[in-house]
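Title: Prediction job returns without error message
Component: structure pipeline
Severity: low
Priority: P3
Assignee: unassigned

Description:
Job completed but the reporter wants confirmation the result is attached to the right record. Sequence as submitted:
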Amino acid sequence: MDLSRRELLTLFLGAPAAFVACQISAPSKFPDGEIIGQSASLGHVLREGRSFEVSPDNWESRSAVIVGAGVAGLTAAWQFRKQGLDDFLILELEKEAGGTARRGTGDPVGYPWGAHYLPVPFKENTELVVLLDEMSLFDGRDANGELLVKEQYLCREPEERLFFKGRWYEGLYPSVGATDEDKRQYSEFQKQIDHWVNWRDSKGRRAFILPVEQCSDDAEATALDKITFGNWLAQNGFTSERLIWYCDYACRDDYGSKVDQTSAWAGLFYFCSRVRKSGEESQPFITVPEGNGQFVDHFVQGLGDRLRKGTAVVSITPSEKGVDVVCFNGGTLRGIHAEHVIYASPMFTAPWVISGFREDPPFAASEFQHNAWFVANLRLKDRPKPRFQKDFPLAWDNVIYDSPGLGYVTATHQKGIDYGPTILTYYYPMCAEPNGRTTLFNYDWKQLADVCLTDLSRAHSEIYDLVERLDVMRWGHAMISPRPNFIWSGIREKAAKPYRNIHFAHTDLGGVALFEEAFYHGLRAAKEVVTAKTQKR
């Protein structure tokens, strides 16, 4: 889009940041880089309403087809193999598997293109524990039976820091200079979190836990889904600017939406679901330089030619014998006669692919609304220098207080590479715009790179001299939006039910775009298929 630089920066970073940036000459030289990934144009062929005729020679038969190689689809394939079902295919639109958990490769380390950590699961999440054990990520259990993850996979210190009023400080809550009222409200907020962490319904279920399927459906808890998190804060007398920013950051970080766009249930879920009991810290993070790409790599191992990348599924038609899948692969139209299909793509796409869906919809696909992001990976020849001697040092997660972006993750941090070249992964959720996806795709690489570098220059004035390459990934449908009246509306539960021989699996079905939800629904759908095949025999 043809905007002046000041208009562009105002749109993305706000008028004050744009004003400051434009008082300084625009950078004379940008680093190398490009926009990568996301086959938007290929995916949009579905909206053209074409008919597809496959040559008889281009049909094959399989027991199952998985549509989508994000974490849910890969988990389903993993479960199939564990159950001895090997006659399946997994079809992925992109050139790489993993969805928002995919990784990049570089020097000196790999880096994430989206999801970059997994909190250590509670011992009750037994199937996820099986995966971590299979990957040799933990050494055993403590006296209470909780996992003891190997130190090299736990996020090392310092874990996080905040750039606030010109300085870097430890942690993410801006406590420096807080008034007595700020402190009182923060303490009261923590008491509310403790209340919900300890809360149990008449069946002994928690209000917030992963997977969401195990959360209480008691009216006292689910009523929180009817209002925004911003409304909940106001109703409870929380007016502290610092606290509201902290809660807003949490919503943008996990959901890509602001505090006034996010369900109060989802807002409290962020703070409560990974705390065992009041007074304890949230579960520690499992992470490596490439983020959740480590799980993608594990799932992909051994799939061989059962994983077909660069394959666009254009038609899924239930039949008397099963399901017919039509796809483009390598420029050729191909068909697969399958007994069962696992649809592990975003739910809103189902009406465009599944024959008969729009005429007699089994669920309201349009209710599954997504948020857009862009992610940039910056290769630096050296680390940014601290502005002040007492600045808190470079951490794994680095956040700028007055930025609409989410700051950056340091890829080399987990390897203990604390000097020299590094890779910073910058995140920007498009939650300030009413149609963030359209806005995002209006801008080219140079404009998005300018936004990223200008934002980071607030904390690192030398960033332009340090960056040697900056690549951008635009995630048009990055994650499900847990807006009010969605999670506990019954929409998710209805969509999780099979439609003839088509089974659905995606983080959409949990209402929150987290690894644990993708894993749970991938397992569930795979088990449905295996059970159906067993009963048929």
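Comment from assignee: result matches the submitted record. The chain has three domains: 5-30+370-480, 41-92+305-368+499-536, 156-283.
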